[in-house]
Structures
1.
Amino acid sequence: PGEVNLSASASTGASMVCTGFVFTYPAIYLLAYSPKYELAGGNYLVDSSLLLPDSWALAGVAMVASILGGFLGCLYFIIFRRVWLVEDPLPLPGFEANIKLMDIAGETSKEGGMDSAMHSIRLVGLSTAVVMFFTFLRDWPILGTGTKDAAGDEVKQSVLASISEGVDWYDGVDLMVPMDHKLTNYTWLGFELTPMMGAIGWFMRFRVALLVSLGTFFTWFVVTPLAYTAGGGEGYPFYYPITGNFQSVAQFDPVASIYSYSYVARPMAIGAILGGGITGLLKMAPVFRTTAADVIDVFTGEGDDASRRDYIEGKGWYEWPISHIPVLLIVSLIGITLTFSTQFGFFASFIFSLVLCLTTFALGAIAVKVMGETSIEPVSGTSFIVLLMLVLIFKAIGLNESDTAILALVGTTVFGGAISMSGTVIGDYKPGLYVGNRPMHIMKTELVGIVPGTIVAALFAGLLSLALAKGDLILYAPQANAFAAFAQIMLGGQTPYDLLIVGVVIGVFMELLTGMGTAFGLGMYLPMIITLPMVVGGGLRDYWEAKFLDVSVEKEGLTEKERTMRLLNTYMIATGC
């Protein structure tokens, strides 16, 4: 069990530090290449000439700064470990599953668990193979169509696309209302044949999947119909960046809902993300007071257990020395400043480094508290706040719009990784208490994992972000699009303040009502075709548990371990999907 806990800690360090590269980094390339973000006159907010020669240099800057920021975010947890894990422990909903898994690991290591392990591997392998074959039939272009493209090459299509040719409501990938149907003026309904989203819904269960999807339903059942029928049927007027003029939604018959989604619902979604995120932080205002007291107690030694700092001969430190935090703070401040100075001015780089260190500390406390109470970390909400701060600061010191966009988004990328480490580290420390791992060892594995995770993230971020922005990689990327749209609203075009304000109100309301205002705002970004499979997957999980698993528990008298193993078998299948 102890080894499983340490392995999980290394995995956490490697995976969660990548968050900024997933959420924010692609936004830079979207603003430089994607037609969705083209401004009037064919210009883009980010000058692509600044990216091409130095694309790897930019990724390198983000990589080095993210490693330092990840270290900083991770070490900050030392301050809160004893208070929020030992003296007044946070509940961390869902951590019990990790305890059960480690308990099972402990039993199988004594009794021999090769049969169970091989069964899990077979389930993953079988479901992976089935889904790969289906995806091959759905996506791989192997059949000729008899037509030529602009380069004179024959256009090919997949097997399912060929079978669905001439079918109005199915195109080989999606079951959907045809684009030329009148209903598409009001909304766009569909269901993508994507096992991945169904599997994600299975992990989330129906309630959480539905809560995340509520924003999508609001967009496509409320916002887009209202935008098309506004003004007595003339449609809502919006600023169209490609023409540089205001145009009516109704002018884009019969696909008006697509434009309502892009230019009305998305700005509202950004407002909802901000409103929900800020409200979530304000709800945690008492944390600031208690956190300040905790920090003072730790550094002054009041109410502190001296054994926390004891060095045990032959075993090393029990806890990572808290004195390393101010040292790393100074190293990060200098290192990030110098790293960014290779691409940007020294003054702007120093300002960013200072903002990063301060916000990681202040918002990191909130992230730990929220994660410990709800198991959901407010990365999006806090990152949007940092992006807003950086844009306003860089505009105030006179940076041009392109440099401001790049520096602010790269900066937010670094912050995303740092804040993720601040919050998620609690998920490894809490199970560590139950298996007797020393905090020093858990911190070691977290820090070691950060380095390879960041290198891999930075390596692929440049490649995949460019492919995403140019349309070679078809992904919805809701977080990256949200950050790109928000930066464009702040720095270029006509800012739709009215839609942003409406979105903020919606986000505040949903945060107070459900506690998931940020998730609701992100849901507003997703097309219906992508959320319905997730809801269906969550519904199937609840149905299976109620009609099959719980019935088996009663009829066969399954123990808690046997019930857990049957549930884990479905996780293996979902993982393969």
2.
Amino acid sequence: MGAKKSNVDKVLEQLSSGVRKAFQEDRTIMSFPEYFALVHEQPARQLRSSAQYLVDMMDYFGREELTLPTGKVVRFRLFDAPFAGGEGRVAGQERVQEEVYRLLANFAREGRVNKLILMHGPNGSAKSSIVRSLMAGMEAYARQPEGAAYSFNWVFPSERLAASDRIGFAASERTRAMAGESYAYLPAESIDARVPCEMHDHPLFLFQQEQRLGLLSQLLPESTAPADAAAGTKHRTAISDYLRHGNLCYKCRRIYDALLASYDGDLGKVLNHVQVERFYASRRYRRGIATIEPQMSVDARIQQLTADRSLAALPKALQHTSLYEPSGALVDANRGVLEFSDLLKRPVEAFKYLLATVETANVSMDSFVLHLDMVYLASTNETYLDAFKEHPDFPSFKGRMELIKVPYVLRYASERDIYLPQVTERIVGRHVAPHAIDVAALWAVLTRMRRNDASLYPKDLHDVLESLTPIEKLWLYDRGEVPERLSAREAKELRSIIPELYRESRSYPNYEGRFGASAREVRTALLNAAHHEGHHCLSPLAVFEELRQILESKSVYEFLRQDVVHGYHDHRAFLEHTEELFTQWVDAEVRDAMGLAPESSYGELFSRYVNHASQWVKGEKVRDPTSGQLLDPDAKLLGEVESVLIGKGEKAEDFRRSVIGTIGARALENPDSPPVYTEIFRGYIQRLREDFFNKRTKELRRINEAFLRFLSGDAKGLQPKEVEHATAMLKALTERYGYCEHCARDTVAYLLKKRYAD
């Protein structure tokens, strides 16, 4: 027992030592002279406004440029939540991230935040998630050396200590090294009162404004801060109005004036009472971060300090003076971020004060004015914004707002990324079958597609755009994949305008991504599907059932009430198409697991075809890889492949030239990359694969039936070879594709019913 207790004590001491070391290394507590020295060492870092702080925070976590079919975008790694192991990651929405960064950088350059950033979009489009990522990033950044920011407390020593000449902490090595007589490091038993600043005022406010302006011009000449490598800043940023014109809060000003009078104007002695404390932003404890939910209450208020022991320890000049301290969300968020969640759900009268507050960074209280330095973020949905635009005060508000549109995700890959961390075996309590998330994401994105206006594009593309289906448009956005039915010229031209198609509706009231199934609704469907009876896993088949239930609720979901336009907004047809794609996916996986033909064989066959077709087009011979002889292109090979790929009425000669022309066009677009046929001609290779298996339908049905009997424990009558093959097939399905026995059985049974029924 004693040895065990000794080990526990040792662990506790190690933890305690680690906390103590971090506390000292982070310089959590400092005297004012120490802090003043730090300001001279790192002026750009210590003189940042809230906007510049957020800009530096986004830069700190880094960025990467992504080349997507819809255009080049910058993704800020902050939104990948590296500080939380990826939990809370925002999938997609890179253009929104860029907009937020641009506005913050503008505020930093101007030296003031004079507008509220209002993110608007449909419900569940990640508006709140983007704000939460910024807040979480701010919390993580505040714990780094680059993110250090400071406020201060007032410290009043005990009467015994104050009456003596001794400071009372001579035993401390750190305090022995101090030249002054600061009370910043006094132990708790030697302090009668420690009064924090609720406004998190900047320590430099302890200098008079004239002194401060002179100091700022010395630290950051020409009223502009240069890029500071130590601080991580990459932009020139104006000294904020907050630092130039701000002042101590009411309570701190009364304490400051009383101390200055008591010490006959000796500022040095006043500063001895100042304990500079590192300012750690925290959403939970509302330090530099606050969220205002839709409510009727005011966002700031004042309260009088009571006559307790702490008040009695203040200078005598203050003991009979009414001291007021502010409180509320505006106070808590000062020097950080304030979020108005669902801003427009509150009556306009409840936030009219923002008209002046955002523009002037001041808010008038009953007894004084608060000086603020914060970034204002807000969110709303399109319904409330449309109604707000009809309000007579909207023009006034619009001049003090920056609107950022946040549509639903329109790329399938990004939509999948939303659910992958949210729908896991740990969360749902069941194995997640392959494609369960895929089918939900695919259907969700299809419901958001909007038909493009062909008249806005070159005439030779009108017919192409008129015929573009929602699923073709989905793959266009996701992979840059054009329909196979197009000619090489049409495919090239369509691929070149993908960014324009993606941006086309941004200025429309009913823009693409405004309507459709929200990620929130689809996630609920996935979670519900995990508890379907008859399935041991979260099965795609159960997901289809849940999505069908959504389709029956037109009165609940607005997007279901849209008119079908040339195949767009036909959500029931989208579900049927998704199920057909799912059938193709699982059929390919099951057939691959059978091992009848290596997956690479179809690509190799097409590569041989391209080689012979190329020589035929050029009128040259083909070198035999075995004998080295020059031979005519293999007419039999060309004919076999073309019998599968050529459509009715199409000539073999034209088809060959089209294939070679497509390869040449792709080479011109990507001169440094060799053509990858499995990407360029994915559809053709798929058709070769389908042809191979269509000729073996009976054999496939027999193999699948034997596999089902094997998994059901009814192996009687199966040949040893069939048992061996079923075992190998199950191993391939589990190891290559992530199936378990239950979902493998369900999938094969589904295929037998859908594809291989007699």
3.
Amino acid sequence: MAETDVAKTDKVIIFDTTLRDGEQSAGAGLTPDEKFRIARQLQKLGVDVIEAGFAASSPGDFEAVQRIAREIDGPVICSLARAVPGDIDAAWDAIKDAKRPRIHVFLSSSEIHMAHQMRKGAEDILGMAVDAVTRAASHCKDVEFSPMDATRTDPEYLYRVLEAVIDAGATTVNIPDTVGYSNPVEFGALIKSVFERVPNIHKATVSVHCHNDLGLAAANSLAAVENGARQVEGCINGLGERAGNASLEEVIMALETREDHYGTKSSINTEEIGPSSRLVADLFGFAIQPNKAIVGQNAFRHGSGIHQDAYLKERTTFEIMEPESVGWRGEAIVMGKLSGRAGLRSRLGDLGYELSDEELADLFPKYKGLADQKREVTDFDLQALMSEQHRFSETDQQYRFEGVKVEAGDMVTPSATVTVGLPNGESKTVTAQGTGPVDAVCKAVDQIVEPKCNLTEFAVASVTDGIDAIGEVTIRVEDADGHIYAGRGGDTDIIVASAKAYINAINRMGVLGPDQTNITFTE
């Protein structure tokens, strides 16, 4: 494709892989229902492609990909597949009911990967790539191919592979910086060379998939756009393997804010960036760092007196984006104990939550209980309440937190009495001692539940400011086989939140179960 042809393409395709590469984050794990909730939010966000998962990896992932393909309309629905027939066929079976299906095939191309991971020669790998794309194209007219570790691949070999897979039917060729090795100047030059050296590149969209090991994923992705790439792959909140992928919110807002420089933009509904970020953080159990670009709690806060003075005189002195444009609510609307059901439903609707009459009836007493504990209930409190509601509803067939009483301090041995609802509908109460109140709570719960697990991580964050803030507790547990499961709980009482989070993690362990395959993959 000539440079003049590239310039005519004024849109960057946004390829979201939160449900695939994002779920490869260490300690992550989503239920099929949680994946569907994220996919529905990504639909509202307006992403062009949803990589819904790796259908061949497990029955659970196949189920999630298939449901998303059948029920999510608008974006292209994609499944990853290794360059083996079984993976490709499973991917097609999972996505074939989508209105716009895509199969994404990947295969190592660098010398180090071919020698140590694949243990095959360059010609064998080339043949495998062509065969895989040919098979995928026999199922689906939209096929993407990724030469894994492209930035450490011999460029001449990379050009050969790309030309061959395009001839075999690839409609998108993705250039992944799999280990986050490249830099913007180098990566931009590689993308430019692909347009110059691959004769049939005009038949395919050039995509990039950058990892963040050196903190350069977003910068590398934007350098690729400057040099003609028209699809960017990444994750909400920068999730993914190791240090993660390019943060889609950063790439999107860079294109939006600096359209004068890049000459292109996406078709994303940017006001859904904030809600998307918060949902992903909640379901994955990974808190957003306060100073995270675009979506962090401090992203639009001004602490310096000089900055505050200038900002109050003219916002644009220190803000290059409007907070509302990314769905950020710095001045959250406040509700209280006198607010009724209609007001609660209306405010939750403004926040993107649509409740049935039954759901509202179930939620309202919990809202009133929260309003009795707090003088003001903010949007952030309501989001925490909804998160707690979803966590309970998705695992309500398992163990249920019913109550806790603790005795703690430096003059007594900490103890906790915990009541847990059992799957058979009965309840059980147990008292245990520990090194602290949370340890005692967990030891009491351990005497009630099956299977057993080890707590590996405990973190607390406040949802809002103030002494009466809701505390969000994230707990990770490990089962006997070393699999990690995350649980979250929220309450104005940290001990209660801890008990909820621990039981939530155990419930998720029961729902998700261990991986049912030994397949390993990356990109």
